[in-house]
């Protein structure tokens, strides 16, 4: 594609310099530029791409998109917002890939990863080739790739969707973060189905207020478009039990389908039973009522399943097929994941990193716990500080043995983060063990038969960020090491 053809879609642009080069790729990282690339200057938090334009030209860039004139010897297209234009030209360059896919987006504070995996399995089980973009990885068919952000930038997204179409993907499922919506990373994505899980306090370091955060999430539904196309309806799948859904229903022109437990909903669960092995409930849909048993534990997972069921139903997947798919789910890595090495107590690793998700996780534990409940909890550095005392309060209220420890302190002093947490629970009983490995070992050492240990916050993550250093750290590995060490010690004592 030539430059002038690509930029024809951009209004009120200015062009500096002559030429209409043929383009081989679009890049926003000067290090990835090759001969024939179009380089887009993006202002980042620490680096401004405009300053790197000369370097991009040296590397082979034949044209630049910029927000200001540049001293380079290739054509420069000057626009108001390079971030917004990047989404437009990427979508154009790659041939509007999301219009060729059945694209499903999931937003909300908690549950996005689990819901996306449940939905992907539904379509895979009806023999569709699927794609997945989320917190844990990007998946195209059976191939997986590392993901830097929950929702990548618009250029990476469109490249990924293009790869999906080339590899025969029919349905793509993606997590859509509030940051991505606010920053325009998903501009150009033509969603067929948008799902809302829930809204609780998170990311206020970025959004400032809950109102701003709620608004950002709502952009997914407002941007689904106003047109109605024969044979391809759009759906907004909303949690009837979350008040934010009222706003999102008003914001969207899409067909609204609700799910829930407490309020009236199109897809509803009643008579809920939860054990350490799984959950069961009566599923009520507009067409029928059926009994459902699933291997996933907890009320929050029932919400996740209801969202997936709603998506399946509007996608014309038979209900019995949906239920069978969900019955076979093995759970999602780091989401209420059991660590078992033969011990007589329960160890669970969960990604719960907000007050609400931690409360949900601990409430679930309390539904089947027979004795003590240990909650190992930390808070990330350089993130919303207002969460810290709330996380500590939840841990103290819903566990018998709270242990406060480090998560990813990043540039902050771990002790300062713990001070913020403990300031919320003055006069309460808890243990403070800064070293996360030591905290996990301590809980497992003290655990007795039928106790439950919840290691919260990091879930599937296999690293810790301390200062500028990223070290390998997996809660599941550490827990298993501690379990084996305890069992070996017990066996030695028995032999003596």
Biggest sheet strand order reads 9-8-7-10-6-11-12-13-14-15-16
The proportion of strand residues reads 15-25%
Q: What is the number of E strands?
A: 24
Find the CATH superfamily of the largest domain: Mur-like, catalytic domain
For the report, how would you describe the main beta sheet? 11 strands, mixed
Q: In terms of structural class, how would the helical and strand content be classed?
A: alpha/beta
**Number of alpha- plus pi-helical segments:** 16
Average pLDDT metric: 91
How would you describe the shape? globular
Q: What does this 3D model show about the protein?
A:
By secondary structure, this protein is an alpha/beta fold. It has 3 domains: 3-93, MurE/MurF, N-terminal domain (Udp-n-acetylmuramoylalanyl-d-glutamate--2,6- Diaminopimelate Ligase, Chain: A, domain 1), CATH 3.40.1390; 97-327, UDP-N-acetylmuramoyl-L-alanine:D-glutamate ligase, CATH 3.40.1190; 337-494, Protein-Tyrosine Phosphatase, Chain A. It is built from 16 helices and 24 strands. The strands form 4 sheets. It has an 11-stranded mixed sheet with strand order 9-8-7-10-6-11-12-13-14-15-16, with helices on both faces. The protein has a 6-stranded mixed sheet with strand order 17-18-22-19-20-21, with helices on both faces. A 5-stranded mixed sheet has the order 1-5-4-3-2. Helix 10 packs antiparallel against helix 11, helix 12 runs parallel beside helix 13 and helix 15 packs across helix 16. The relative contact order is 0.08. The mean pLDDT is 91.
């Amino acid at each position: 594609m030539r430059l002038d053809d690509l930029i024809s879609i951009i209004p009120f642009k200015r062009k500096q310099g002559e030429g209409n080069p043929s383009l081989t790729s679009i890049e926003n990282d000067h290090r990835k530029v090759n001969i024939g690339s179009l380089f887009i200057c993006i202002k980042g938090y620490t680096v401004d791409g405009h300053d790197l334009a000369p370097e991009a030209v040296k590397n082979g860039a034949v044209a630049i998109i910029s927000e200001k004139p540049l001293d380079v010897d290739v054509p420069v297209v000057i626009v108001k917002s390079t971030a917004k234009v990047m989404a437009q030209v990427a979508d154009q360059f790659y041939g509007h890939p999301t219009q060729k896919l059945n694209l499903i987006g999931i937003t909300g504070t908690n549950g996005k990863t689990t819901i996306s995996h449940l939905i992907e399995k539904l379509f895979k089980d009806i023999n569709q080739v699927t794609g997945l973009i989320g917190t844990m990885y990007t998946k195209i068919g059976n191939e997986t790739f590392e993901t830097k952000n929950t929702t990548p930038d618009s250029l990476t997204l469109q490249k990924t969707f293009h790869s999906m179409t080339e590899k025969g993907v029919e349905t793509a499922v993606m997590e859509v973060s509030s940051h991505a919506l606010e920053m325009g990373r998903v501009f150009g994505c033509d969603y067929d189905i948008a799902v809302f899980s829930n809204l609780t306090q998170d990311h206020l370091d970025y959004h400032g207020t809950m109102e701003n955060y709620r608004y950002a999430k709502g952009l997914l539904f407002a941007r689904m478009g106003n047109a109605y196309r024969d044979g391809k309806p759009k759906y907004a799948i909303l949690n009837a039990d979350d008040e934010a859904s009222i706003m999102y229903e008003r914001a969207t022109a899409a067909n609204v389908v609700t799910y829930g437990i407490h309020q009236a909903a199109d897809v509803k669960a009643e008579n809920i039973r939860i054990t350490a092995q799984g959950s069961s409930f009566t599923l009520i849909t507009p067409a029928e009522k059926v009994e459902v048993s699933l291997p996933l534990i907890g009320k929050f997972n029932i919400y996740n399943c209801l969202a997936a069921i709603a998506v399946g139903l509007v996608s014309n997947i038979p209900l019995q097929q949906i239920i069978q798919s969900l019955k076979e789910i093995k759970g999602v890595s780091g989401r209420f994941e059991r660590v078992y090495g033969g011990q007589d107590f329960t160890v669970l690793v969960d990604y719960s990193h907000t007050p609400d998700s931690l409360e949900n996780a601990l409430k679930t534990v309390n539904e089947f716990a027979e004795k003590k409940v240990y909650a190992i909890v930390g808070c990330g550095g350089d993130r919303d500080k207002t969460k810290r005392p709330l996380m500590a309060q939840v841990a103290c209220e819903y566990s018998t043995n709270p242990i406060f420890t480090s998560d990813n302190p990043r540039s902050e002093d771990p002790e300062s983060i713990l001070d913020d947490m403990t300031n919320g629970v003055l006069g309460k009983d808890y243990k403070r063990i800064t070293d996360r490995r030591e905290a996990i070992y301590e809980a497992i050492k003290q655990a007795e038969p039928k106790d439950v240990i919840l290691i919260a916050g990091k879930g599937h993550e296999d690293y810790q960020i301390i200062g500028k250093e990223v070290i390998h750290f997996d809660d599941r590995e550490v827990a298993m090491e501690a379990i084996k060490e305890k069992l070996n010690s017990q066996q030695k004592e028995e032999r003596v």
